[in-house]
Amino acid sequence: MNTSLLVALLVGLALATAAYAAYRLVVELGQADTAYRDRPPRAFLWVWPLLNIVANTVGVLVQGARAEALRARLRRAGQEYALTPQQFFAGKILALGVFGGLGWYFSGEGTTLLGIVVGGVLGYMYPDIWLSDHTKKRNLEILKALPFFLDIVTLSIEAGLNLTGAMQKAVDHCKPSPLIVEINRVLRDVRAGRPRVEALRELADRLDYAPISSLVSAMVQGELMGSSLGPILRAQSDQRRIERFQRAEKLAMEAPVKMLGPLILFIFPCTFIVLGFPIVMKFMGSGL
The organism sits in which domain of life (predicted)? Predict the structure, then answer.
């Protein structure tokens, strides 16, 4: 048999074996049970099979307290039913490889190792930065929706409904938001037989957000003491509006400081060039 033909057959067989092995790997490790889970974030969805393969491979590194800490962070960001701690850690590993490869590609001669290290570190940190930003954005949406929600609950309680019925009425009349998602979860827990106080405390633990913790504390105290919840909720609504106004004032006062950087780096140099160019040309024309 011709040697080149034999080599070609062996190479083809090796490629076919590698393709079959990759297929079996995707089938056995690249799938995840998503029947009762939310849709993953877009970046994770793009590499979903590879993400699950890495998660099943390095998942042993995320166990015990480390897994619980990651799960708590995912819970605060509303991603508890979209990603597991192992999948999130696998995303960090994949980002490390991708950014490290980009650092190697764009690094110059003699800086290859530095580019790989810097890119890898940035890639490993990027999912944490994304999760933190997503949590802050979600908390801001909750803070914006909270006053109107409390107004509806207060009016419903003063009209004669109990707290559960008032919360359901507010959910029906409020726009979709992360707050409504969390309140719906509380209502499902209550309908499933869980005590309302425990469901509310679980809400505070799940979000770990100061306005919600303060609201839940006031509601639980009023529930246990048997006092009227109307004045309590109205005071909480007023407090949340004051916090929103103070936050807007803070952002307005920070705006001039944030503008100093662009002014100094971009606007002032252009202005000086426009003003100074005719003067420089006149001096050059006069022989100076």
Answer: Bacteria
Using alpha carbons, list the distances in angstroms from residue 36 to 33, 80, 83, 108. 8, 12, 12, 48
Mean pLDDT of 57-81: 87
Phi and psi, residue 208, nearest 5°: 50, 50
User: How far, in Å, CA of 113 to CA of 226, rounded?
Assistant: 66
Residue range 169-184: mean pLDDT, rounded? 89
DSSP state of 27: H
Is the pTM value of this prediction over 0.85?
Answer: no
Euclidean distance between CA atoms 279 and 284, whole angstroms: 9
The pLDDT of residue 127? 92
Alpha carbons 167 and 165: distance in angstroms, whole number: 5
Pair 223, 163: CB distance under 8 Å? yes
Question: Using CB atoms within 10 A of its CB, is residue 256 exposed (0-12), middle (13-18) or buried (19+)?
Answer: exposed
d(CA 195, CA 199): 6
